[in-house]
Design a protein that fits this description.
By secondary structure, the protein is mainly beta. 14% of the residues lie in helices and 50% in strands. It is built from 2 helices and 9 strands.
């Protein structure tokens, strides 16, 4: 598995799973040495399986990480409260190289 490095975190990988409420795709960042780092997505609306709302409110490097590792591309935005979350079409094929999938 390829590793991700972002900010001070090294030897990281992603975990792709589903939100229980509606089966939206959930993406988290984990470290081999530090454990869970961040939830990279939020569950704010029903989306197709290959799309996710990136959590730019609680994790400042989420969009940078997706762009740096080509994990997806922006296709829209969604407003929730005071935050506008980018919607990304996920590069699920490439995500397999950087992490694990849990169904």
């Amino acid at each position: 598995m390829k590793k991700i490095k972002i900010d001070e975190y090294e030897n990281c990988y992603i975990v792709v799973s589903k939100y229980v409420a509606n089966d939206n795709t959930a993406v988290s960042l984990m470290s081999d040495t530090e454990g869970p780092i961040a939830n990279l997505t939020v569950n704010i609306d029903d989306l197709p399986e290959d799309m996710a709302a990136l959590d730019v409110n609680n994790c400042h490097f989420t969009e940078e990480l997706f762009k740096k590792y080509d994990l997806g591309r922006p296709v829209g935005k969604i407003q929730s409260g005071y935050v506008t979350y980018p919607i990304y079409e996920l590069n699920l094929g490439l995500m397999h190289e950087f992490g694990v999938f849990i169904n």
